[in-house]
Amino acid sequence: xxxxxxxxxxxxxxxxxxxxxxxxxxxxxxxxxxxxxxxxxxxxxxxxxxxxxxxxxxxxxxxxxxxxxxxxxxxxxxxxxxxxxxxxxxxxxxxxxxxxxxxxxxxxxxxxxxxxxxxxxxxxxxxxxxxxxxxxxxxxxxxxxxxxxxxxxxxxxxxxxxxxxxxxxxxxxxxxxxxxxxxxxxxxxxxxxxxxxxxxxxxxxxxxx
Length: 209
Hints:
Layout: H1 20-23, H2 43-47, H3 80-105, H4 110-128, H5 133-162, H6 166-172, H7 174-183, H8 187-208
Helix pairs in contact: 3-4, 3-5, 4-5, 4-8, 5-7, 5-8, 6-7
């Protein structure tokens, strides 16, 4: 103490600690920011059973879980006009090839007629599709292809021997050309025409399937 009887330093009175039970029993206030949500597995994944994989279902039956339902294959749409155009072009090309082969070999074989029908019917069936008229058209075009191939063979022979052009052979001298064609026919030509017609009909149906 100072000589005057006053304390040299003044201390503020220290408050006594409150009773423990008065404040420590109170609940802790929530924090100022929200708590992050707790992740919970969705109910549909909790209850869903794992897929049971087994043999695929039969065609036309509903598919179980794990298999995709396959629809019936759509049939190919027929296009007879386009098939006829392609078949006609194939017939003209194969008839020219038929005449060249006859001229080169100086003979005629049934394999030539089969090959011609195969070329014609391939264009008809693949492009035209399934149509009831196309097999009949394949038969007619195959017969016409053999006929034109033989006429083209006559033209090649006359052109080589006499220098005649296509205007002479198939124009002014068409009557003599047809007479020469009839004179070269024999029983084998009936077989060639029969083979070409039948194969043209059958091959067109096969290629259209």
